[in-house]
Amino acid sequence: MTCFVAGITMSFIMYLASYTQNFGNFALIYGLGNGLVLGVIYILPIGHCYQFFPQRKSTISFFIIAASGVGTLIFAFIALDCMNPNNLTLVEAGTNFFYGREIAMRFPDFLRIMSGVTLGFISGGGLLLFQYPTKFESMLKQ
What we know:
This protein is mainly alpha-helical and 142 residues long. Helices cover 77% and strands 4% of the residues.
């Protein structure tokens, strides 16, 4: 249930952040809101895996953290392809480089798409957890 609710909450936060008009509001809503939700979501697999493999906690932590990093890497490339489909080059502005207004204007739409993806993956995964009792729940019934 926690994973399901966290997925809905994260999706709503991303969707809400896509409508902000300044960076301060965006950072507050997206950064703080998703940071809190990610903290809740991140501890769920760690806690469950520690119950199933109490002698292998460091190995389990390695795989969970590595999978999180690989997922971030993959979604970074997906984000770049979604926001920069024409493969525009960086624009120089003094000592800074940026992609320009055309790509920046695609970011809110990208966040809205990602809110739907988040809703599907995290909440869908949470719904799958309703189907199968965990090993811990099976042990309690015995």
